[in-house]
Design brief:
Elements lengths: L1 H12 L24 E8 L8 E7 L5 E3 L8 H8 L12 H8 L1 H11 L13 E5 L7 H7 L3 E6 L2 H9 L4 E3 L11 E7 L8 H11 E12 L23 E2 L2 H10 L2 E9 L2 H9 L18 H17 L6 E8 L1
Parallel strand pairs: 4-5, 4-7, 5-6, 7-8
Antiparallel strand pairs: 1-2, 2-3, 3-9, 8-11, 10-11
Helix pairs in contact: 3-4, 9-10
Length: about 325
């Protein structure tokens, strides 16, 4: 009788592990190439924000893309992000002291961003261009960067509060997803910085990108690079799985397939390591499933940050295809 009571107590204590918190979709085809063939798969969980469910990651045998076989469904994805995913909402004019100082000294700011590899996609856009910035977010120098290049810029964000913040800064930002966005306008550039890996409906998203771009228009993408796994000892410990928020992850092969299917050509492809990614990786410790990861709150000195940045820029040159962040410039044919 005692064992039965103990078993019942344990079952109640761990009941949140036995039933999925959110509705799931079942993915039977690779979202990049539509192949059914899987090279390998493994179980993973949210190692950042504490969502307790288990998810299955698979590697496509044909194009090498990694993707979730059982992602949170489109009907519940908003609930997932609202409950667990942090929203960085910095009111205009309330950036860090160093950002404010560097904003005055533009050449110094440019040098710092070169060294720590945190240049924004806007820095790669030609002056006087029309831009749709998908998942644009907000940071203290956003408006300055747009004004400096005289851009016809529009942002697209899901977070209602973030949209209000961006609009209050004197910028145009639409609320919604890429799938729901409607416009008769054609853009010179569409920017997707750490966005494409979150797409539940990748095919539809890329079709929308192609539709919104002018002929010869460019889609600039920043996303994790799974070729980085080749220099990692423990594949499951790679911090960029970011389950269940990342639903599909790329390397050069899978990105090339995605581009070809959607009638884009790759003009530029390179990989690099942002300094903050490296410091996060070095400090990362996998949490107990269902708990928030406390190892994200690390402290470092400016000198350490500078020295790590310099060493990373050297490594980027030594291993040009195996760094964790990829940049792609896709051109619409």
């Amino acid at each position: 009788m005692g064992r039965l009571v103990l078993f019942t107590i344990m079952m109640k204590k761990n009941s949140h592990f036995m039933k999925n918190e959110f509705k799931r979709s079942k993915i039977q085809f690779c979202p990049v190439c539509s192949s059914k063939k899987i090279e390998n798969s493994f179980i993973n969980f949210d190692d950042r924000y504490g969502q307790p469910d288990l998810f299955t990651l698979a590697k496509c045998k044909k194009c090498s893309a990694y993707y979730l076989l059982d992602p949170v469904s489109s009907t519940d994805i908003g609930k997932l992000y609202k409950k667990y995913y942090p929203s960085l909402n910095i009111p205009p004019g309330q950036g860090s002291k160093i950002q404010k100082i560097l904003s005055v000294a533009k050449p110094l700011l440019h040098l710092v961003k070169k060294i720590d590899a945190t240049e924004t996609l806007i820095s790669r856009v030609k002056n006087d261009s029309s831009v749709l910035d998908v998942g644009c977010g907000y940071y203290p120098r956003l408006k300055n960067e747009i004004d400096d290049k005289n851009l016809d810029w529009e942002g697209l964000e899901i977070d209602e509060k973030l949209v209000k913040t961006i609009n209050s800064a004197g910028l145009v930002c639409h609320q919604g997803s890429l799938a729901s966005f409607r416009s008769s306008k054609k853009y010179d550039y569409i920017l997707m910085s750490q966005v494409i890996e979150h797409q539940l409906q990748l095919k539809e998203a890329m079709e929308k990108v192609a539709k919104l771009l002018k002929k010869g228009g460019k889609c600039l993408i920043l996303t994790p690079n799974t070729d980085n796994l080749s220099i990692i000892n423990d594949v499951k410990s790679w911090i960029h799985w970011h389950t269940p928020y990342h639903t599909v992850l790329f390397n050069l092969k899978s990105m090339s397939v995605l581009a070809g299917i959607n009638k884009f050509k790759i003009n530029t492809y390179k990989t690099y390591t942002p300094t903050n990614w490296e410091l996060l990786t070095r400090n990362f410790r996998s949490p107990i499933r269902g708990q928030k990861n406390k190892s994200f709150h690390y402290k470092f000195s400016p000198l350490e940050y500078f020295l790590v940045s310099l060493s990373l820029r050297i490594r980027d040159l030594q291993k040009p295809s195996c760094n964790p962040c990829m940049f792609c410039e896709l051109e619409k044919r």
